[in-house]
Records
---
Amino acid sequence: MTTDDKILRVALVGATGYTGLELLKLLVRHPRVELVSLTAKVDKPVCIQREFPVLEGLIDMECRPPEPAALAAADAVFLALPHTVSMKFVPELVKAGKKVIDLSADYRFPDAGAYREWYGAEHLDPAGLPEAVYGLTEIYRDKIASARLIANPGCYPTGAILGIAPVLEAGLVEPASIVIDAKTGVTGAGRKASLPLLFPEVNENFRAYNLVVHKHTPEMNLILGEIAGKRVEVEFAPHLLPLNRGILSTIYLKPARPIGEEDVWERFQSRYREDRFIRLLRPPALPELKDVAGTNNCAIGFRANPRTGNLIVVTAIDNLLKGAAGQAVQNLNAMEGWGEGTGF
Amino acid sequence: MTTDDKILRVALVGATGYTGLELLKLLVRHPRVELVSLTAKVDKPVCIQREFPVLEGLIDMECRPPEPAALAAADAVFLALPHTVSMKFVPELVKAGKKVIDLSADYRFPDAGAYREWYGAEHLDPAGLPEAVYGLTEIYRDKIASARLIANPGCYPTGAILGIAPVLEAGLVEPASIVIDAKTGVTGAGRKASLPLLFPEVNENFRAYNLVVHKHTPEMNLILGEIAGKRVEVEFAPHLLPLNRGILSTIYLKPARPIGEEDVWERFQSRYREDRFIRLLRPPALPELKDVAGTNNCAIGFRANPRTGNLIVVTAIDNLLKGAAGQAVQNLNAMEGWGEGTGF
Amino acid sequence: MTTDDKILRVALVGATGYTGLELLKLLVRHPRVELVSLTAKVDKPVCIQREFPVLEGLIDMECRPPEPAALAAADAVFLALPHTVSMKFVPELVKAGKKVIDLSADYRFPDAGAYREWYGAEHLDPAGLPEAVYGLTEIYRDKIASARLIANPGCYPTGAILGIAPVLEAGLVEPASIVIDAKTGVTGAGRKASLPLLFPEVNENFRAYNLVVHKHTPEMNLILGEIAGKRVEVEFAPHLLPLNRGILSTIYLKPARPIGEEDVWERFQSRYREDRFIRLLRPPALPELKDVAGTNNCAIGFRANPRTGNLIVVTAIDNLLKGAAGQAVQNLNAMEGWGEGTGF
Amino acid sequence: MTTDDKILRVALVGATGYTGLELLKLLVRHPRVELVSLTAKVDKPVCIQREFPVLEGLIDMECRPPEPAALAAADAVFLALPHTVSMKFVPELVKAGKKVIDLSADYRFPDAGAYREWYGAEHLDPAGLPEAVYGLTEIYRDKIASARLIANPGCYPTGAILGIAPVLEAGLVEPASIVIDAKTGVTGAGRKASLPLLFPEVNENFRAYNLVVHKHTPEMNLILGEIAGKRVEVEFAPHLLPLNRGILSTIYLKPARPIGEEDVWERFQSRYREDRFIRLLRPPALPELKDVAGTNNCAIGFRANPRTGNLIVVTAIDNLLKGAAGQAVQNLNAMEGWGEGTGF
């Protein structure tokens, strides 16, 4: 970095959740970023390092109740908010010429109808939807470079799509019979009191939830449909792991024609040749959550089963990093034309 | 059991907490007990095996909102309620001639002043306090046999007092310098939504809490003072473990005169000769939580340190069993003159 | 039980593993069983309650190095041994007229060729294979009643087959496209030192393993093939959970024709009407591991997905109980004509 | 950093343990360090990022079996080796003029007799002992600045001494009655297969171990004795937590005269005024392991108990960072005259 490199002024809205904490850890170390504002749903200003003592020594800054003035000084704004809340902030920020990276689901669908159907709420900014670019960096890098509003992907879609895209876009697998069995750590559910997320209810326990109806399903269908060039309906089954961080997705695919592991390997290699955060494993190696915890990597392994004919792809991400805060910063880097790995 | 053995009709108030669940598991298997009523703070009657599916096949019974009539048919009543709530139920039940085992703190102090000081509430039944017997079975077995109202001990006091009583009552250790460093599983905090007890806040974490001010301190001081025959002020430091069940207490004692491990061993052996739920370990063996999980046992080990002169006693209990539901059933057995191990 | 009820003398070979411990807990409480011998790979006799202090107060018995004489007094023998070891014990025991319940894989295949292919060892007792009955009680109850040698099922096949059998045998689903995504607790890997099973390698981690090549695959194919009346090749993907006990299997099935949840419910209900250890959940309820931990139950839930057409079945078992020791005792009960729930 | 800043060539011996991994993570990010050699007890050279996939993208380097030539190019060497192994490497490295930071216990005692007594082995380099400086940076910063050989402190002594030193050196507490009840995560036991450290033996379990005889006791006594200016014999009781990382120490101290929390606060504040890695909490706040996980911080809180007169200090560190690798890098920084926080 030369001394006249531009420093971007960044604001973070929603600083006190698990994603907010990870954004803070990344942004305070980012060489091109100056944090100018932290806000969250707090009663009165609090020092963010009191709320998260693990930040002591890294940052000394107040987190304040949200107010428009707080964002005025920012060039770019990260919104780490629940869905239906982000869309109250976005229109004004975009109008004010700020770059916006929204980590909620509010701008992931080009179509307010899909939003209404799956999120059960009327979209407040349907006119703003076409502006948004889906921020799966490895897939939409070019559009992200010129975007002003990023819809940062859901954690599950990130892990699933990255494992499917290379073979789907090459026509190697059938779009019609994709099964995604995904398992997430508990931070994926957010930082709010809830009986089913109490320690003794999760510890020594494991369960599937929201089969058939999980809100990330249409997001996968939309993006995979774009990639395949035809309608996709995945079977998506989420599960809750007794651990803090990570999503492991086991993906069952039907090859369009018989396919060997060497072919699959070459396809993944060539597709992700330039992607520093994709880590490919040669069969029979398979990724584990501890390989990616604390990183922005997506690790991908696979096996072709000669008995069944299936191709099984396994991906691992840290749900709070590649699945949220890390990918958001990767997107900022891509928007600004910095190297995607800047600050990691 | 002969066919004309008496079957006791038992009611459980507060069936939907962690302690309630353990009481249910014990009572449905108890050969002398018939469960006649379950109540809890529920909006409408629920099948208890729907609330706790682990009970499927063991019980098929409704749990109802509390109402006096539900208790009329019972000979004995277990109250698994928060403190300040139990004392609203007890007076009427005692007056109706029912045997009552109260698992809250409401009847543990003979004196309403201590209750007010530590629990911050005025006692509603001060006249009923002298009736209550402190239900630490190994210490007060004789009084329990003729009691009508049992104040079941706190989980921490149970683990601590059982490790100290034998050497304290024999004058082997100084009453003035007792340190109790105790570590509990999360079920000890009850089954209610709370941010600090959310899985990601407890998992991979460990902390001390309520140093100096924990409500179980005066209970230990009271009982240990009775045992020592003089005033006792323990240093009690509770900690929260990232696991579901168990309390391990590490207790630091100053011998009144130099003492060897063999002497301590003989003292514990002779004191607990007839106590089926006390498990003594010979030095250098020490108890672990997994040795007692799922049992009503209190495992006790110790070391004498020749360098410092200290005696260190380590005790392990399952906080939900010997620390709550198990000891409550042991007390019922003692009250009824059945063998203390009946139903375990 | 009347006083002249027969008491069966039982020996346990392999008492010091995780399955051995669970068998001990069940057998000491079983009203029709007298434990007459415990053996294990130990250097010299050890009190079993010293090896497993959680048994203190329940049993006081020596566990000895294996020797033929130790088994002479037994009417029935449980073998909780690794595969390739059991088959060294079985022939002589069967010849001596003892009932044998083998918890290893050694007698699960009627054909020594399949054993050689998947377990990489020559079978030492091919002539004994036809004698063995596969001990999935809910499926082979009638044959078990007259069996002398039980091949107790693998933990994964138990959870998978029980979720598939009712709809497969009724022709409701395609045999050709079964996907079983299963997740097990760590006790499933046995009690032996191993770097990948060290606490810090498993805790906060999750991974798939042995995709395509897991030894339980042919066992599922064999039994499901018998049930379907045609060749079955399942896709079986096992995963390792950071918890002690339980297997959750998420099973993806293609209906042979469009099917509603009500039809599936009726099919499961009628198939398992008399099975006390099967617990069916009405959609949208799904089983969790904590619902079955410590029980011999298999909990089963399911969803039909109108978008994809798939039927998804989720089953939960305790891998050490219904998946091993519990089912073994259930089989003993079935062999002896006692109620299957005796001793649970 | 200006472009002509010196880059230090660093070697790491023992790269494949838990401490080695943390050293790697720190050293690859350190702006003044170039890693020139990795060795470990491996059969043949392995890419370190294959052994620890979490390093993928951060490093691409071979780890080789140890051989003297590998260290020749290094200016400084970190030894992350078991005790009794380090002292085979140290003399030659020191003679060759390299700066050495030894993370084992081999050079922590000035006296080979104490080493023999507690570690049960004859010291191979008694003449080298006086050269070593005990690397508790906050206490021995000045001596470290000119040291050539650092004995990096044990994990437990680090957490304990930092909580005691300020009040002990000021004469505020009695040196004669210090009790240290410490609880560690499992990585503290190293990365080697061992039955008691198997996941199911540690998970849902908690235990004290090595009471009275733990090898870190004399290290605490030595350093605290130097600080107090008189003989110290602490009571040190270590415990094993079911989590990966962190040590929480609860320390019980007898004030020399009555003391208030404000006095203690001022004492800690003034003692650690310039220490960036010490984080003081005002009563009643107390540190938690999650506050320090992943950091080089030592968080310190305390309470004065008016009832007992005791002062209770609680400290929290990440055992792999401030308790090992982090403090080692902090020491390198201090030796080189860089800011202590360089590279964190």
---
Amino acid sequence: MPQDRIDIRIDNGLLVTCDSEDNVIKNGWIAVQHNEIVMIGKTGSEAKPDASDIIDAEGGIVMPGLINTHTHLPMSLFRGLADDLPLMEWLNNHIFPREATHINPESVYMATLLSCAEMLLSGTTTCCDGYFYEDSVAEAVRQTGMRAVLGHGVIDYPAPGIDNPDQNVAHALAFTEKWMGRTDLIIPSIFCHSAYTCSENTLKKAKAAADQNQLLFQIHAAETAGEKETMLSNHGVTPLQYLDRIGVLDENTLIVHGVWMDAMDIKIVSTRKAKISHCPESNMKLGSGIAPVQEQLNAGITVGIGTDSCASNNDLDMLSEIDCAAKLQKVKYLDPTILDAKTVLKMATIDGAGAIGIDHLTGSLEPGKQADMIIVDIKKPHMIPMYNPFSHLVYSARGSDVRDVMVAGRMLMRNRKLLTIDMNAVAASEYFMTD
Amino acid sequence: MPQDRIDIRIDNGLLVTCDSEDNVIKNGWIAVQHNEIVMIGKTGSEAKPDASDIIDAEGGIVMPGLINTHTHLPMSLFRGLADDLPLMEWLNNHIFPREATHINPESVYMATLLSCAEMLLSGTTTCCDGYFYEDSVAEAVRQTGMRAVLGHGVIDYPAPGIDNPDQNVAHALAFTEKWMGRTDLIIPSIFCHSAYTCSENTLKKAKAAADQNQLLFQIHAAETAGEKETMLSNHGVTPLQYLDRIGVLDENTLIVHGVWMDAMDIKIVSTRKAKISHCPESNMKLGSGIAPVQEQLNAGITVGIGTDSCASNNDLDMLSEIDCAAKLQKVKYLDPTILDAKTVLKMATIDGAGAIGIDHLTGSLEPGKQADMIIVDIKKPHMIPMYNPFSHLVYSARGSDVRDVMVAGRMLMRNRKLLTIDMNAVAASEYFMTD
């Protein structure tokens, strides 16, 4: 192998691999051929293969691209539109009416480009999304070269693009059929909004559709105390117990939020091998609650991190999200040792990939994995001195410290310049004019 | 006035004044003469005075510089040195031993320059600090041109530069006498570590020294449950009740943390008109607890925001701190309407200035106030679209979005370039070498 010429070699990096042994390699190099990592080495130890393009990490941290396990990309349209409001007033008086008037295939396409630009600029290489007009989301994501698991929203109410709710699962299926195998980077999924907005029949139909094609089944669950009370009074059980009773919890199910989970709920999710997407900043901003993440991890559940939408965060910055996630668990349990930097960084990389079912493809720097990686500049004042790269990435790094981004061996950002998105054109879009 | 030529005019800004009416001026301009704001206007409404230097804000947000009400600047030396550890293990096995071996006048000077660079790059124009070798802190801060309230640390143990604790108050006084009236930008203060590390006699002596010169008296209090238990068992009262009993709580006292405060404690602090510095990220990361900020505000207490040191945060970024502060209160009370964006932004500007006793000088954009202001770029993807500048600054902006920084009419950063600190020289310092 060393004698062959490979496509790209990244030199002079501090490699934080997030592999099964949490290997960190100083003065490391990574060889990329086509869309794959083919070799990883330490300068001076192994012979480096020749490469057509050599990228100097200049001593920066090279790590797997960040994986955002819960987004609604087009909602960047509503960033800061309405904040600090009661959840139902926010949804019913601001978000839903705005969706009715401002959501269309073109606005969804432009807002998705905007969200992808923000994600790339802050080091995210993969996201797991669910919204309406998801075909426009997929077209935009494909243009950017990012990796994404995408699901068309299923809800038992008229929704953007779906006047007749009876057709909601059919719409979602049509999306998956259109995008199945069309490109390696876009992986279709089924996204049901929740058990309080979808009937048992809808949930079962949607889950069956997902199972037919081995697709990820995403659903919001146990987000608020109000939701738990509603489920208890309507069905006599908690949201998770209800989802289990109707048979939609298994290893291909992603529970989004999972804040209001008791010991029994945690045991059920663990037994079913379902996964959880933890969205701390959204749960904080909407006053939903603090998820029992440490207990979920103790039960062996795979937990990834998500930002949720720009309407409830108000950004898509995974580095600020993991900082917040680590600190929030510590203060919940009044224990600073909980959710240490290494644990939360893996939740944002390899465990996030596992949560959305693609850890065989991405989430760590290892030969054979897809070449999804970022280079983080560690020379800025807020990154000096550096004792521990895990601690640095979680507690000190900002999205703006990400210098380069590669997905499947293709550079999507180099020296902070986006290579697949024309931000001037996106920023000039009428959909983002607020005056 | 318009016919006179003034020094600097800032044009084309979205002015977020943080004045008593929370005025926001679109297409606004600000006239600066010497170190003061002399006029504020709206383009097209009032005639603009000629200026020697015109700065184009390019539609960005112009606001008062951020005020960090609690720092230990030299502790950037220990950024990421030891994280995710129990508080006492962290202090006794890592921080205190490191201070004994690595803290000297030169390391304090260099680390303070590093911290000032980080603060300026993230929009902070004023900080309130307490540490040892504070004379070196003051020399470094003076070089940078920042505004600061500085106190030499008082603790009843041998400390860096103070072998004999009997001399601790004398040392602190010598510092205040040296810096009193020496420069407008450095305001001396007295900083006592806490009621569990200082005797009643020390606290009274230190407070008397502060009162003699009308100086701010800073003290950590009610940070952890353990501290509260210790005070209850040793003195039979809570930390705040104890400080009140010995007579050190008044309008010139800054309570740092104030996490474990009950209704009586809040009533006492409110009655005494003492101020509070709220440090949410430090309280989270150390697992200390969530301060009852909403109840403190309801009681009429002036509460500012602080980052605490780089060893317990691990940064000095006030924009991430206010984002976290707003979200943390919402999740504490399970109410998204609590600590709205406008309230928390004022805590980081005019209320922060009030908390440290300098709101007559800074904290808002108003004629007669010192010209301490920043320009925030709002053109980046994560800042698009913009509906509400308060929401944007709190929930979307990052330290890296701050483009320019002015303190007392002097530009300290322009287009992200630091004008008073040679970062290459600072970064090369032996004190930041970790290998």
